[in-house]
Write a structure and sequence with these properties.
There is one protein chain. The radius of gyration is 56 Å and the shape is elongated. It is of the alpha+beta class and 577 residues long.
């Protein structure tokens, strides 16, 4: 269905508006939509009459195609086409679409009278939908007033609720602030404890007190201190002189931390003093390094900012205490190590120089830990003209091992005066050690040379095998079955072994520190020693056995951290005078 009206005056506009309202009612357009349609159309037609010219209104029905309408829904389209003059001026058509729930095939809208009175009456009839809408709007106004009163009461309740929410919000914010503060304090405490644990591990990792003193400022600067000065007293007990802050002197004398500044620091367990004359413009915290007897020294710190946090100061005092323990342990370790090494070297014998036999020995103490005092070598003559060469290793380290080594050395020399083969001497040493020190064990290898005997006799007890270089440059590992370790709780008779020893031959006796590596074991080290000994020419060994000993140690120890003592004894048979 399509209807068209030409509109050029008010009467034609009224007819068109009335016809549109009737047609919309016939098609079942809801009253509200009809009121909106006629009101919008009336406003648009008034605008068209103001602009002049002839306008065309077209009404047609069809299936929905506009956005927002349901697919397949019948709708009523209204289009106002502008006059030619308005179209030329760029005026676009006016369009509106409303749904038609009760669409019919065709509807007659009836004639509209030309008489103004009848036209007005018809116009009023066409606007009855608008009146109905207005009545409904009046009913809605009552409902609106009722709801407005309810809304006012609700608003009052909302205001009261907002007040309660504000109070609850303030309480919640205060709780959040307290929680953040507690979390921050817990995080700071965790950070301090973590730093204290890590710093303690660093300080106790070294047994060199100079290294500990060097690392302490590296740990504290710049997070916890702007500067750190570590003053260690002399072993004679001297105290800091006038060049150090007065607070450091007081800390040394009283054994209590001192805080020197223009204003009190309020630090727990720390005494307040006036500013230092050496640094009047910055606070100083002087903490003694305590020990059981007297402080080892004083650590003087300046703050990273204006002053220290009290909790940081407590942590610094605890760290200084741990540093003092580490320094004290390192100094005691170094003292005991020096004593053990001095005793060890003092007990190492001066090698004899028998005819036809050249001896060269090397002893190197361990460079890591207190692992010195167990390895030893010796060489001496027997009454029948024979020469005994021995290398041994006492289990354990330190002073006790050094003392036990000296006792074994003395006992071996005493037993050798009565004669006896290497196996017999080791058997007697085994009995001696088992009864003297049941909880200590030892390994040893003994070689006996005699100018009238073309063979060399040897015996070993739990010790790495000797290595023999023959005059033609061949190298043999004398790995005949050895006896068990000396001192173990069993009875044993250690057997002798013999091997030809022609002039020009060289025998190497050594301890496991020369050949054993934790990652590879001992066998590859023995093979390397055999290669090193076989690399020398006969002339080199005859001319400079001492230099040959050094030439063996260099390649053998190039990959060693020297965490154990090293002994090497070379016996070179040059011939008989």
């Amino acid at each position: 269905m399509t209807r068209t009206w030409q509109i050029s005056d008010v009467t034609e506009a009224a007819r068109a508006r009335i016809a549109t309202a009737r047609l919309a009612a016939a098609y079942g357009v809801p009253p509200v939509e009809r009121a909106r349609l006629t009101a919008s159309l009336g406003a648009q037609l008034r605008s068209c009459l103001t602009k002049g010219g002839t306008w065309r209104l077209t009404l047609e029905t069809g299936t929905a195609s506009r956005a927002g309408a349901r697919a397949g829904e019948e709708v009523l389209h209204a289009v106002v086409t502008p006059s030619p003059e308005a179209a030329a001026a760029g005026q676009p058509p006016w369009r509106v679409t409303v749904p038609c729930p009760e669409a019919v095939a065709d509807v007659g809208v009836g004639a509209v009278a030309d008489d103004p009175a009848e036209l007005a009456q018809a116009l009023l009839g066409a606007d009855e939908d608008t009146t109905l809408v207005l009545e409904r709007l009046a009913e809605q106004e009552g409902l609106v007033d009722f709801h407005r009163e309810e809304l006012q009461q609700t608003n009052q309740g909302v205001v009261a609720l907002h007040a309660e929410l504000d109070a609850a919000g303030r309480a919640q914010r205060e709780a959040f602030a307290a929680e953040r503060k507690a979390r921050t304090e817990a995080e700071n405490a965790r950070r301090r404890l973590t730093f204290l644990a890590d710093a303690s591990a660093v300080l106790t990792a070294s047994l060199d007190h100079h290294e500990i003193v060097r690392r302490l400022p590296e740990l504290l600067v710049p997070e916890y201190a702007a500067s750190v000065d570590v003053w260690l007293f002399d072993q004679d007990g001297d105290r800091p002189g006038p060049a150090h802050a007065a607070a450091a002197v007081v800390a040394a004398r009283t054994g209590r931390p001192q805080y020197a500044a223009a204003h009190p620091g309020g630090l727990p367990g720390v005494d307040d003093l006036p500013p230092s004359a050496l640094a009047p413009d910055r606070p100083l915290l002087c903490i003694p390094l305590p020990t059981r007897q007297a402080p080892l020294g004083v650590v003087t710190l300046s703050p990273p900012g204006e002053r220290w946090d009290p909790d940081d100061a407590v942590m610094l005092v605890e760290l200084t205490r741990r540093a003092s323990i580490a320094i004290d342990h390192a100094q005691r370790y170094q003292h005991n190590r020096d004593i053990a090494e001095t005793l060890q070297r003092a007990l190492l014998t001066e090698l004899p120089a028998p005819p036809g036999l050249t001896l060269a020995a090397r002893y190197l103490p361990a460079t890591h830990g207190l692992n010195i005092g167990g390895d030893w070598y010796d060489a001496f003559r027997q009454p029948d003209g024979g020469v005994i060469a021995v290398v041994g290793d006492v289990t354990g380290h330190g002073l006790r091992a050094a003392v036990m080594m000296s006792q074994l050395r003395t006992a071996l020399r005493a037993y050798a005066v009565d004669g006896g083969s290497p196996g017999q001497l080791l058997t007697r040493l085994h009995t001696f050690l088992h009864h003297l020190q049941p909880d200590l064990f030892a390994t040893a290898v003994i070689a006996r040379f005699h100018p009238d005997d073309p063979t060399m006799t040897w015996a070993a007890a739990g010790h790495p095998p000797p290595v023999l270089r023959t005059p033609d440059g061949g190298v043999l590992t004398l790995d005949a079955k050895p006896g068990a370790m000396l001192g173990i709780p069993l009875r044993q008779e250690i057997a002798d072994h013999t091997v030809p020893m022609a002039p020009g031959s060289t025998l190497a006796l050594y301890t496991d520190g020369l050949v054993e590596r934790r990652a590879r074991g001992i066998d590859p080290g023995i093979a390397r020693l055999a290669d090193a000994l076989g690399s020398f020419g006969p002339a080199e060994l005859d001319a400079d056995l001492e230099g040959s000993a050094d030439g063996i140690l260099r390649p053998m120890l190039s990959d060693s951290e020297r965490d154990d003592d090293v002994c090497l004894l070379l016996c070179h048979l040059s011939g008989t005078d």
